[in-house]
Design goal:
single chain, about 350 residues, alpha/beta, 2 domains, 7-stranded mixed sheet, 6-stranded parallel sheet, binds NADP nicotinamide-adenine-dinucleotide phosphate, binds zinc ion
């Protein structure tokens, strides 16, 4: 057992405070990682503040982890000491169900083991603790390689925000000539713009923040629609093949469904804590639209996404924060005041 410094919440209102947590010994199939950087995802905020149900405190969040391998177990084949690696939203799954066997571990029928806040059966049911910490020990099957030359801090957000947007874009087979809408220009949204552009799509950003328009164009967006402006929304009707919805707060989907062309699909990625207004089935029926959802991405797909981003020069636009600034960063994220992902510098823990 080793002890590492971390920042943990002790209740929904405690904020994040310095703590020390235990990491297991490096087992035969494990890699031990010295964490360099960890992205701050809005899911961390939802979880830590018990917005998705009562969290298991004390809890260390963080599932956009990049670091350097410090030890490998005797049976590890895919990794060596000194390599830069990443860990995303899950650290285990049953490895036997159809979803696991098909590389969709995130949809494991027994439930994936989340990087934080999940009971880890293989480790005596202990609650997993995340990446706002100096180190972590993870089974090599749930670790990915960071391609050479990628900036480690700006790569960290790809481990969740990157793969969560890459996966549905690939699932929908978005390609050259397609039109893609992205609702919400935050951590997920800005990655969706970059990845959809790299796939060859024409991209429309829907934002509630008119001040983000020029930044959206700078990210590569072709069109920006201010979603609170009904004329702007009307001008976008029947124009899109696919929409990724990355909004973290309650909102009405029906105006966005009107912007889809026949056979279009709206994929829900944001998960607000309160109930959303109902989708009007008439809107779906009249244009043969699909309304679906998508959860992060599988492990092989996460590696594929990293290789794709390396090839296309895609990184996250980040603002680095120290451990002492985590609470303030959460408040700024909730207020939509981040361009576009906060990343914790783990050396400040
Ligand atoms: P984020 O950085 O805070 O971005 C969310 C964006 O939503 C904001 O920047 C804002 O963009 C927009 N927004 C906020 N309040 C709004 C409102 N009332 N109405 C309309 N738009 C609003 O969050 P994130 O880290 O990208 O995460 C987004 C959501 O995805 C969260 O709910 C998170 O839990 C979820 N998530 C899901 C998965 C998955 O696997 N499905 C993975 C990761 C995260 P504008 O200023 O441009 O309007
Ligand atoms: Zn996340
Ligand atoms: Zn499984």
């Amino acid at each position: 057992m080793t002890h590492v410094k971390a920042y943990a919440a002790t209740s929904a209102t405690s904020g994040l405070r310095p703590s020390t947590i235990e990491r297991r010994e490096t087992g035969a199939h494990d890699v031990a990682i010295d964490i360099e950087f960890c992205g701050l995802c809005h899911s961390d905020v939802h979880t830590i503040r018990s917005e998705w149900g009562q969290a298991k405190y004390p809890l260390v969040p963080g599932h956009e982890i990049v670091g350097i391998i410090s030890r490998v177990g005797d049976s590890v084949e895919g990794f060596t000491v000194g390599q830069r690696v990443g860990v995303g939203c899950m650290v285990d799954s049953c490895r036997e169900c159809d979803s696991c066997l098909e590389g969709f571990e995130q949809y494991c029928e027994a439930g994936m083991v989340g990087t934080y806040g999940a009971a880890d059966k293989r480790n005596g049911g202990t609650i997993t603790q995340g990446g706002y910490s100096q180190g972590i020990v993870v089974d090599e099957n749930y670790v990915v390689h960071i391609p050479e030359g990628m900036d480690p801090a700006a790569t960290a957000p790809l481990l969740c925000a990157g793969v969560t947007t890459y996966s549905p874009l690939r699932y929908l087979d978005v390609q050259e000539g397609d039109t893609v809408g992205v609702i919400g220009l935050g951590g997920l949204g800005h990655m969706a713009v970059k990845i959809a552009k790299a796939l060859g799509a024409t991209v429309t950003v829907f934002t509630t923040s008119p001040a983000k328009a020029s930044a959206a164009f700078a990210l590569g967006a072709d069109n920006v629609v201010v979603s609170t402006d009904s004329d702007d929304m009307a001008g976008a009707q029947h124009s899109l093949n696919a929409i990724l919805d990355t909004v973290a707060a309650v909102h009405d989907l029906n105006p966005y469904l009107r912007t889809l062309a026949r056979d279009g699909a709206l994929i829900q990625l944001g998960l607000p804590s309160e109930k959303m207004p109902p989708v009007d089935p008439g809107l779906l029926i009249r244009k043969r639209l699909a309304y679906g959802g998508s959860l992060i991405g599988g492990i092989a797909e996460t590696q594929e996404m990293l290789d794709f981003c390396a090839e296309h020069g895609i990184l996250s636009d980040i603002e680095m924060v120290s451990a002492a600034e985590l609470d303030e960063a959460y408040d700024r994220m909730v207020a939509g005041d981040v361009k576009y992902r906060f990343v914790l510098d783990a050396s400040t823990l």
